[in-house]
What does this fold into?
Amino acid sequence: MQIPVNPMSLTIYHNPKCSKSRKTLELIRARGIEPTIVLYLEAPPSAERILELAGLLACPVRDLLRSSEEEFREAADLPELDDAAAVASWLTRHPRVLQRPIVVDDERPAAVVGRPPESVLGLMP
It folds into this structure.
């Protein structure tokens, strides 16, 4: 009996209620890859991991904020957006505001935000 092997190792920071996140996961699975799924609303990434994700995405941490979210617009405790560590820490307490979905190629390492979902195709062979 042959055990199927994933051709690559991906992690998706996933919100099953988000259509873009569901579509991104569908595109990954259509390529025969079963990613590690992090339900980030239930298990928010640490501030350190958020800083790592920003590094992999080659963007400032403030670019990981979804400014259209009501929780962002009404936040009384939002830190100065140029303070990466403070914003990362804030995101651990307000994960709904985190960009989604974020997909990480755990082997390279590299990452993309699945907006549009097809952007994840750049991580795959």
